Amino acid sequence: MNSHCETSDLLVFSHLRWDFVFQRPQHLLSRHAKYRRVFYFEEPVFGMTDMPRLHLRETTEAVQVAVPYLPSSIKPEDVEGALRDLVDELIFEEDLSTYSTWYYTPMALPFTRHLQPVSVMFDKMDELSLFRGAPQSLIDMESELLKRADLVFTGGHSIYEAAKHSHHNIHPFPSSIDYDHFSQGRMSLVEPDDQVNIPHPRLGFYGVVDERFNVELLKDMATLRPDWQFVIVGPVVKIDPATLPKAANIHYLDKKDYHALPLYLAGWDCAIMPFALNDSTRFISPTKTPEFLAAGKPVVSTSIRDVVSPYGDMKLVHIADTAEEFVKCCDLAMKERTEVKDWMDKVDSFLSGNSWEMTFLKMAQLEKELPKRHRETVRIERITPTTISAGGAI
User: Fold this and answer.
1) Which band of pLDDT confidence, cut at 50, 70 and 90, is reported for residue 372?
2) Reduced to 3 states, what is the DSSP secondary structure of residue 63?
3) 238 phi and psi, to 5 degrees?
4) Which residue has the higher pLDDT, 104 or 343?
5) Coil, strand or helix: which one is 88?
6) What is the pLDDT of residues 29-88, one digit of tens each?
7) pLDDT tens track for 215-256
8) Does 179-351 match 4-176+356-390 at the fold level?
9) Which residue intervals of the chain are DSSP H helices?
10) Closest Cα to residue 13, out of 98, 88, 95, 107?
11) Which end of the chain is more exposed for a tag (fewer CB within 10 A), N or C?
């Protein structure tokens, strides 16, 4: 990467906490951090301080995570200015004289549009405007970001098809796979304590449990097959946990560390993706699809467009939408494991052309080809160095 993407720092603005779930941003940015400094600017945390502060810490992947803390008493009209000042202070304190910006959320524009990076990139991994609680201003902000961006990536083919006419330099990059990590799920591994006593057959899901998860489908399947055990691994977000179906054969195991996921996968008989079919899932490209397959698990999913094509079309994943169809497909998928070698050969052949490393390299090449913007980064003089809290708790 002998271009400005190697010499410029990377300033990332995201709506996702770095430590929430290890997913697309973490896979890509941890690879960038091997070649350049990466600063990951999160959404603000309100409270725990009586003045705006920025907490900076380095992750094990060498990414610098910047968390802005704002007083709970701050007026709504003052938030934008406070965040702008904290971004400027970060640039000054860390001597970001040459940097590129990378957006996961257009909602960062109001406090970053004054910046002058060498390039602007937008990784449109989801259609955020369709998620529950999305503000009306998000659509306008995204329209502005698309005008400002030099390079746009999308999180899948369906979202690319919907957005391809909105930018001159837009490219689809669907979910990739850390094959070596998840293929451990094919081995006989030590069972985690909270799963070891759950009987078989086990049908498992991991991921965020939110409005994209079809709770009614899970409830109906558990009723239809009381002899099956449904293992749900992941945090519950934006929905009331009290609304989740309760049954003796449904087991909620909460959020797990990324490195522990193969331990859970190894003990499943089938992996399930019971996504709701609604606005929030219209353009998703679930990362767990290739991960489940890499672990050697038969997979059944609802008819998410980026799962149907290519996985369903290639007979790598079963597709079903009703509880009756889903149960039937799960039963069939588990029985098909007796012919596992032919199926696994097809899986491995498909996955061999898919990795986060390859995705990163292709994205980096596209950035390398961007013309450098002919302007110098504005240096920030109005600064109070003590407002940066590096490495310690607020």
Assistant:
1) low
2) coil
3) 65, 5
4) 104
5) helix
6) 999 999 999 999 999 999 989 999 999 999 999 999 999 999 999 999 999 999 999 999
7) 999 999 999 999 999 999 999 998 999 999 999 999 999 999
8) yes
9) 4-7, 24-32, 76-93, 137-148, 157-163, 179-182, 215-224, 261-265, 288-294, 305-307, 323-335, 340-351, 356-368
10) 107
11) C
At 76, is the secondary structure helix, strand, or coil? helix
Integer Cα distance of 274 and 234 in angstroms: 14
Torsion sign, CA atoms 200, 201, 206, 211: negative
Contact 293, 270 (CB under 8 A): no
Q: Does the structural domain 179-351 have CATH classification 3.40.50.20?
A: no
- Looking at every residue in the chain, the average pLDDT score rounds to 90
Contact 180, 290 (CB under 8 A): no
Distance of alpha carbon 19 from alpha carbon 11, whole angstroms = 18
Contact (CB, 8 A) for 261 and 231: no
Q: What is the dihedral of CA 225, 229, 235, 236, to 10 degrees?
A: 30
User: What are the structural domain ranges in the chain?
Assistant: 4-176+356-390, 179-351
Distance CA 367, CA 358 (A): 14
pLDDT at position 4 over 60: no
The pLDDT score that the predictor gives to residue 376 is 43
Q: Give the CA count within 13 Å in the CB-facing half-sphere of 99.
A: 24
Query: Considering only the top CATH level, what class is 4-176+356-390?
Result: alpha beta
Residues 189-199: pLDDT tens digits? 999 999 999 99
Q: How far apart are CA 279 and CA 109, in angstroms?
A: 24
Q: Cis check for the bond before 201: say yes or no (omega within 30 of 0).
A: yes
